[in-house]
Amino acid sequence: EGHTKRGLAMIHYYDKYHSPVLPPIWLVCEKLSFGVLSRFFEALRIDRRRIVGRYIWSYPEHLLVSWFHSLANLRNICAHQDRLWNNPITGFPPATHKTYSIDFTNPTSFYSRAVVIQLLMRELGLNGWWRDSLLALLASCAHVDPRKHLGFPGGWNTRPVWT
Questions:
Q1: Under a CB-based contact definition with an 8 Å cutoff, are residues 72 and 116 in contact?
Q2: In a 10 Å sphere around its CB, with 0-12 CB exposed, 13-18 middle and 19+ buried, how is residue 71 labelled?
Q3: Distances from the Cα of 141 to the Cα of 5, 44, 134, 138, 157, angstroms
Q4: What is the SS3 string spanning the chain?
Q5: Cα 113 from Cα 94, distance rounded (Å)
Q6: Distance (Å, rounded) from C-alpha 40 to C-alpha 13?
Q7: CA distance 74 to 93
Q8: Are the CB atoms for 130 and 117 separated by under 8 Å?
Q9: What is the pLDDT at residue 5?
Q10: What whole-number distance in Å separates Cα of residue 69 and Cα of residue 85?
Q11: Which parts of the chain have pLDDT scores under 70?
Q12: pLDDT at 27
């Protein structure tokens, strides 16, 4: 049980190192849920959030706070087997990025959260992977109309956020 709760890296840390008493933050964060991470980020002093926003994500900290909460909510919907299909997501709407404001016009849609994921993945250099995976998934679900059921606008994948 200790291996699954703490994880092998954490066990290795405590077996091998005695100082500092607490493991590095990256190791601790690997074991936190996305919801806890979103609240942890929000709880940071604003100057620390600005550093993360500027140097890691290139987005203002207030967007990241909103986006992380929105994605944690999306994760919980999926994890608890609620529907995304044809179901407005009313909790934690993502804040609008002014450059891509047209993509945030329907904040209760899955599409607005997909845009958030796209923008964050772009920062990690993974936007092509995410976009292509999303396109393939939507193509494999013939019974789902992305426009009608998920709030995707027509020609969504040719918009600047997706290129």
A1: no
A2: buried
A3: 36, 40, 11, 5, 17
A4: CHHHHHCHHHHHHHHHCCCCCCCCHHHHHHCCCHHHHHHHHHHCCHHHHHHHHHHHHCCCHHHHHHHHHHHHHHHHHHHCCCCCCCCCCCCCCCCCCHHHHHHHCCCCCHHHHHHHHHHHHHHCCCHHHHHHHHHHHHHHCCCCCHHHHHCCCCCHHHCHHHC
A5: 7
A6: 22
A7: 10
A8: yes
A9: 64
A10: 20
A11: 1-6
A12: 84
Q: Are 32 and 40 in contact (CB under 8 A)?
A: yes
At residue 1, the pLDDT reads: 45
CB-based contact 123:58 (threshold 8 Å): yes
Radius of gyration of the chain (CA): 18
Residue that is written with structure tokens 């900290």 in the block: 61
89 and 132 in contact (C-beta within 8 Å)? no
**pTM, to two decimals:** 0.84
